[in-house]
Fold these 2 entries.
Entry 1:
Amino acid sequence: MYDFSIMRIAIGALMVFTVFPVRQYARNWMAVKLGDDTPEKEGKLTLNPFAHADLFGIIFMILIGFGWGRSATINPSNFKCKNKKLGMLAVSFAGPVSNLLFAFIMSFLYVLAGYLRWGHTALQIISYIMILNLNLALFLLLPVPGFDGGDILMQFLPAKFLWKIAPYLRYISLGLILLILFGPLRGVIGIAVQYVAYFLLNISDLICSLFFR
């Protein structure tokens, strides 16, 4: 069952207006640095959350902890690097990396809060923000067309195959999203999130222990 507590919904809304813009900005910034000015022309090289808002992505993020924003159009042909596929991989990984960095910061704050004996509510909020960031990073790394993972997969598929499946990408995306949200893949993501969170917390504890012996 889903937890629709007021605090979790409020944190989900906070994520929409903080984390989403950061991850989309990271992706667009990488594209611009590689030579594609399309995100700038579309007005998406910004931290303004409304520039990246997607209605269904926001609803899903607030209610169940998975969601997405509206990405800028990326044109790899504008990249200055010779290997366009490598450039697109860098763009695709920029968003999830920003989420992982955000999650690491939250894990550090969580451990630090324990050393400083912050209240239970503060620990709960910090831990949930960390988990949401990990959910977002791993969710969008799945090989779904339109997600970061889908963009990564596209770089390794033959052009002829891509042309054949292009008309069906919308239906493929919808089917995979439903499978992820309501099928066994949701549990797999949850397990992966737990392992990554455990790793980040251990690293953070190691760092904090150097200062609180």
Entry 2:
Amino acid sequence: MSSDSQRRVRILAIEHERGTGPQRFGEWLAEAGAEVVVTRPYLGEVIPELGTFDALIVLGGSAGPTEDAENPWFPEVRDLLRRSITGEFPSLNICLGGEMLAVAGDAPITRRAHPQIGIYELGATSAGEADPVFGALASGESAGGATTGAESTSGTGLPSVLFHQEEMALPNGAELLITGSDAPVQAFRLGEFAWGTQFHPETDATQIVRWLDGNDLALPAGKTEDSIIAEVEAHDAALTEAGRRLAGSFVDFLSARQHG
């Protein structure tokens, strides 16, 4: 076997602000065999060329996906995502990253009257079940056949962390993969391998504590900071299982593409 065929999958992750890094999702990617390099343009770091990387991850943040004046690297990131949509390289984009992918795919972004913060029950669509990466989440769902209003799901049992007020529509031509709640676009694929999520596979209760402390969003009706933290803590085992499956599936996909 050549040294090139043994090369580890390399993933570039773009972090938009302090406290929004890849967290344990990055650890799970490394556990699955990937090297994750984090670039922080908010600290003045230059986003490197993608040529030596197998994929891009765009992480979350408190900004909206088109708030370019405060975040002057955002247009460059959206341009990268357009390249991913056209098939140049795979990308996995989380919350703000997913919203930026939606914008790159010409989908509208709206501001919700009330944010979604805490644990929400999601489920895979039939397209999600068949997806080469997100199918790993569908395999862990319980049977149920819930209907969300957007599309029938084959199962429920995918508790996930949401922390957002911006809401994305499904871009034209995209496949809806994960749905649920009254923000039905929870994960989608645009093109062959540009994925976006609204939910956070990387976060945990410790990070949620920091986000709640540093955020002035009104909490959803009936929730308190303590109840949100308790929700996330109570579902940590399921969140860990699902996040690890997603990370492993993404690395498997990249490895197969690298060696195919």
